[in-house]
Write a structure and sequence with these properties.
This protein has helices spanning 21-34, 48-53, 63-77, 187-200, 234-241, 258-262, 282-295, 315-328, 332-339, 354-385, and strands spanning 12-15, 36-37, 43-47, 85-95, 100-103, 116-121, 129-131, 134-136, 143-144, 151-155, 162-164, 167-180, 219-221, 231-233, 245-247, 267-270, 273-275, 310-312. Strand 2 (36-37) and strand 3 (43-47) form a beta hairpin. The chain is α+β, with helices and mostly antiparallel strands. 40% of the residues are buried. Helix 1 (21-34) runs antiparallel to helix 7 (282-295), helix 4 packs across helix 10 and helix 5 packs across helix 9 (332-339). The strands form four sheets. Strands 1, 2, 3, 4, 6, 7, 10 and 12 form an eight-stranded antiparallel sheet that branches. The structure holds 2-oxoglutaric acid (AKG) and fe (ii) ion. The site of fe (ii) ion has 3 residues, from loops. GO terms for molecular function: iron ion binding; L-ascorbic acid binding; procollagen-proline 3-dioxygenase activity. Its cofactor is Fe cation; L-ascorbate. Pfam families: 2OG-FeII_Oxy_3 (PF13640). Residues 85-181 form the Fe2OG dioxygenase domain. Keywords: Dioxygenase, Iron, Metal-binding, Oxidoreductase, Repeat.
């Protein structure tokens, strides 16, 4: 589909390939390793304030040029006389069962400040998920088949009533932004203030290790009640669907408080082997594993002199993991239904590529420390201009 011309009755714009596939993959990595429960059943989200709260502020950097590009396109196409403000930025994934009926995006009294919407598709219909087609009630285009990199922008009012079909398989991922003409709803001002508080203490070196939020933010149950009996821990489940488990060596048992378990050091386990390397907590392990999934074979070039062992699990360790599994995952099939990709894409390999994962630990560290450095360098300019923008710094 190509760009759609401006129609006064239905002010909207479709932009094919607005984001590069590399940008889509990077945001997918961030979402899958940082997301929390969303605002509706089977929906998960990663907001910028959640990133800040979990010591992962540096992941805001990849969003910056994309937000700028979208805002520019929007202001130009809709001929905005005054600058717009970004009211909300978030990565949103929908799992099997999620859908939304006809609505406009400003359809609540507390959403009236939303004047424009932008939805960026980060993965592709038929490849990564099925169901999930987008429809406008009137006008053209009548439907959109999500494809990684494509973007749709529209006014958030009754001229653009839309819906999304139920997801029937896989996970549908988008970057959603809302824009406002009203500066008092500027997300940047709030984010800069949070960033300033969070980055004030601590040296650059220890600011990039993730710190989990309170445990109920990672607890998913279908009816959204934080019911520890009928749900699962998102971090635990995300690792599990990729074929990994974690072992917590410090005195941990099924009776321990879940919040406490989340901040304990962990070891990665695959099958009956564990990697002889400690991660600071489950979020750290999850980020590295997803980094490994993102970079894949590109990591192989860096692994010549790595010497980290795989160790056979003892029966006692296996038992302990089973105990934690029964508490944190509960129902394996439920977690798989929510997080597994399309059946056709599933990779059956169960070997532990320890060399690749160890290479990912180092490459992840290099990547996040580079982002962290960028954040520290740019923040003073963001504060000065009360705006998050791509500061062009001399080398
Ligand atoms: O993800 C989409 O295609 C649109 C989502 C939507 O309509 C909304 O979140 O309000
Ligand atoms: Fe919507």
């Amino acid at each position: 589909m190509s760009e759609v011309e401006f129609e006064p009755q239905h002010p909207r714009l479709f932009i094919p390939n607005c984001l590069s596939l590399q940008e889509c993959r990077e945001l997918e990595f961030i979402h899958k390793s940082c997301c929390t429960v969303g605002y509706r059943p089977n929906v998960f989200s990663t907001t910028l304030s959640h990133l800040i709260a979990t010591n992962s502020s540096h992941f805001i950097i990849p969003f910056v040029p994309i937000r700028e590009r979208l805002k520019e396109k929007l202001e130009e196409f809709f001929k905005c006389e005054y600058e717009l403000f970004i009211e909300f930025t978030g990565l949103i994934s929908w799992s099997k069962g999620a859908s939304i009926g006809w609505h406009s995006d400003d359809n609540r009294p507390y959403l009236k400040q939303r004047h424009f919407s932008a939805v960026c598709y980060l993965n592709t219909y038929g490849n990564d998920f099925s169901g999930g087609l987008f429809h406008f009630q009137d006008g053209e285009p009548a439907s959109i088949m999500p494809k990684a990199g494509d973007v749709v922008m529209y006014t958030a009012d009754e001229h653009n009533i839309h819906s999304v079909d139920e997801i029937t398989e896989g996970e549908r991922l988008t970057l959603a932004l809302w824009f406002s003409r009203d500066g008092s709803h500027d997300e940047d001002i709030k984010l800069i203030s949070l960033l300033s508080q969070h980055l004030l203490h601590g040296s650059m070196a220890d600011t990039y290790l993730p710190l989990p939020a309170s445990s109920n933010m990672y607890w998913f149950s279908q009816d959204q009640a934080s019911d520890y009996q009928f749900g699962f821990n998102i971090c635990w489940a995300r690792l599990r669907v990729l074929g990994y488990e974690v072992y917590i060596s410090q005195d941990s048992s099924c009776e321990s408080d879940v919040s406490e378990l989340l901040v304990k050091p962990v070891r990665l386990v695959r099958g009956d082997e564990s990697l002889d390397l400690e991660f600071v907590n489950i979020l750290h392990a999850l980020q590295v594993v997803h980094f490994y999934c993102w970079k894949g074979s590109a990591l192989q070039t860096k692994v010549s002199n790595i010497d980290t062992k795989l160790v056979k699990l003892t029966d006692i360790q296996r038992e302990k993991i089973s105990g934690l599994n029964s508490v944190l995952l509960n129902d394996d099939a439920f977690a798989s239904r929510v997080f597994c990709g399309m059946t056709s894409n599933r990779n059956g390999c169960n070997c532990f590529d320890s060399t690749g994962v160890v290479a990912a630990v180092a490459a992840w560290e290099e990547y996040v420390s580079m982002l962290s450095k960028q954040t520290h360098l740019q923040l003073p300019y963001w504060k000065m201009h009360e705006s998050i923008y791509n500061v062009q710094l001399a080398e």
